Amino acid sequence: MTQTSNYDYIIIGAGSAGCMLAKRLTENPNKKVLLIEAGKSDNYIWIHIPVGYLYCIDNPRADWRFKTVAEKGLNGRSLLYPRGRVLGGCSSINGMIYMRGQVGDYESWVQATGDDAWSWKNALKRYKSFEDYHSVANQWHSKGGEWTVSKQRLRWPIMDRFKDAAVEAGIPASDDFNRGDNFGVGYFDVSQRKGWRLNTSKAFLKDAMKRNNLTVVTEAVVTKLKIDPNSKNCYGVEYRKNGAICESIITQNGEVILSAGAIGSVQILERSGIGAAAHLNKLGIPVVADLPGVGENLQDHLQLRIVYKVNGIKTLNTKANSLFGKLMIGLEYLLKRSGPMSMAPSQLGAFAYSSPEQKSANVEYHVQPLSLERFGEDLHSFNAFTASVCNLRPTSRGSVHIASTDPEVPPNINPNYLSTDEDRKVAAESLRLTRNIVRQPALAPYSPEEYKPGMQYQSDDDLVKAAGDIGTTIFHPVGTCKMGRADDPMAVLDSELRVRGVAHLRVVDASAMPVITSGNTAAPTMMIAERAAELLTRE
């Protein structure tokens, strides 16, 4: 056991939340901060080239390479479940889409926690505090923050035609999805800087690492938290580095901050004796705090990838399938930092109502000028586009739990997709809504033909089966250590992100969300970290 010096704060996980916290907490030169990351440095070229996510996901250089259990709702399929294992965490491998969600999301957080600090009004102030927006500052956006929000550096004619078709179908054009009501269709804003991916390591940690009061340890896997079984006081962290077991301790008034994500934070809590007693007992782990909500309430956005063949218009399929096309793509990025190599995985977005009974837009489209059978495979040889649609407010709830005390053994991840009548109903409605958009006049000249799932699926039961065949994660797991009121037995955290029943321990990441946001989840995770920084640095 190697004993290291005391710290005021120990942050576990250098991802979307951890990197921001490291910068905020080291602004006080009198506070010593330790940041522990299981992965390596982010000095891997494919992290920084936007299209490089293709080479980072399912790559042990940057990804934990998790998989789900076989999902009943997906007709027995198991999915890849990428989570970043590198400085920057998931911000180093995600889709780079900057999305805050809707006003109603934050009102649901206030209702769940009883704390107005999580209202849209207060969340918006935090978003603006770290934002550097591509246009002028206004009531919705600000300039000068660490997080650059850029316009995309490419357009595709087929995307413009899909946008026109969506407008014809009743979805208004939008140039900003981040004003609290994202109903509309338009190109996504992205987390990029001059054509390069912006991850939280670059935006926050790079400057913080110049400070003498920050220590960053990479390739170090946290085995468990150090907790006094009598006082229930978390006083440090045990981790494995280069085959040795190391221990770091916090000062008397210090805190341990768990920012390992909706999967990783659960694993560390359970290995430390915090979780459902029945599950911990099965693994022979002494129970420190019986919190049955740990690992429960898993929510994710299931995307249905609908593919349409088109004629008379070029897509990336044919451009990227020729040697000359690939050379031109590479040359454009080298000279201009634009073109397909600069693109986020999805370029055009749309937020819509799957049915009139919805109170706000409840489905999100990620539209791409390409198609393929499944992630990691070659593009199709024919021209096509993909309209992926996800249910923004799923009612299905899943779980994640450790299967072993060994930190390198993957957990059991069970998203439980399409397990409710409501989610199955929205899935069927989403497929019908997509067909309605595609049959509009704007796309008619290109004779769109539904390749996947196929027009043979017509009834509700048929469409639910089709959804199970083509559905896949869009990488937004949240909620597994949710905040909640004192009378909520499944709440793991209070409204200030403190673990119930354990002193000097907080969880600050996407797992804290009581309800998933209506959009991509990276920016809300940073907003949660900004709130934690407010709490930790207040006098």
TrEMBL record:
Keyword Cytoplasm: no
Stored SUPFAM superfamilies: FAD-linked reductases, C-terminal domain, FAD/NAD(P)-binding domain
Chain ranges of the Glucose-methanol-choline oxidoreductase C-terminal domain: 394-529
Keyword presence, Repeat: no
Ranges where the Glucose-methanol-choline oxidoreductase N-terminal domain occurs: 7-302
Record InterPro entries: FAD/NAD-bd_sf, GMC_OxRdtase, GMC_OxRdtase_N, GMC_OxRtase_C
Pfam families: GMC_oxred_C, GMC_oxred_N
Cofactors named for this entry: FAD
Binding site for FAD: 86, 222
This protein's UniProt keywords: FAD, Flavoprotein
Superkingdom, taxonomy of origin: Bacteria
GO molecular function: flavin adenine dinucleotide binding; oxidoreductase activity, acting on CH-OH group of donors
Alphabetical list of PANTHER family matching this protein: CHOLINE DEHYDROGENASE, MITOCHONDRIAL, GLUCOSE-METHANOL-CHOLINE GMC OXIDOREDUCTASE
Family named by the database record: Belongs to the GMC oxidoreductase family.
Name of the protein in its database record: Choline dehydrogenase
Naturally occurring in which organism (per UniProt): Polynucleobacter tropicus
